[in-house]
Design goal:
Elements (H helix, E strand, L loop, with lengths): L12 E6 L9 E6 H5 L3 E7 L5 H13 L1 H6 L4 E6 L3 H11 L6 E4 L4 H6 L2 E3 L7 E3 L2 E6 L2 E7 L10 H7 L2
Parallel strand pairs: 3-4, 4-5
Antiparallel strand pairs: 1-2, 1-5, 3-8, 6-7, 8-9
């Protein structure tokens, strides 16, 4: 079953590569419970089929990084990029994109959270295995308020500008 507007996010864990050690977060990959992270917050989530892939690296992620302040001005607490990659890859991609402070690069290495959303896709023909569909969503206190899922091979509905316009 695919998640839809009005649904609560499923339980799950995501990993994030932490560059600077803080209280409760060690250097390197850290595991986070999605339910804990979204509690009481307004979060923009966008997902890409893979780190370092052309559309994801040149258009999708850069748009959210570029518009991070505009999202925050509309009350968004955090922006997450989710991909079915490991936390080391997501950390390296985030460094390349200069995402620090703008977008949290969240790894769903085994696609468990992506599958729980019902937004997984089989890219085996391209040698990529199970990945995420391309989408964007607004989540408030764990409930999906906006959801934009792309058709396969498209990049029209899940961009930062579309979601920003939906926030008014």
């Amino acid at each position: 079953m695919t998640i839809k507007i009005g649904d609560r996010l499923p339980e799950g864990e995501l990993r994030e590569f932490i560059e600077v050690e803080t209280e409760g977060c060690t250097l390197g990959p850290n595991k986070f419970n999605v339910g804990d992270l979204v509690k009481g917050k307004k979060i923009v989530i966008f997902a890409v089929p893979g780190a370092f892939t052309p559309t994801c690296s040149e258009k999708h992620a850069p748009g959210f990084i570029q518009h991070a302040n505009a999202f925050k001005a509309r009350g968004v607490d955090e922006i997450w990029c989710i991909a079915v990659n490991d936390a080391f890859v997501m950390g390296a991609w985030g460094r390349q994109l200069n995402a620090a402070g703008a977008v949290r690069m969240m790894a769903d290495g085994s696609a468990e959270f992506t599958k729980a959303l019902g937004l997984d896709a089989d890219f085996s023909k391209a040698g990529l295995g199970i990945r995420s569909q391309r989408y964007s969503m607004l989540v408030e206190d764990g409930v999906v308020r906006q959801l934009n899922v792309e058709q396969p091979g498209k990049f029209e509905a899940s961009n930062a500008e579309t979601l920003l316009a939906q926030l008014g």
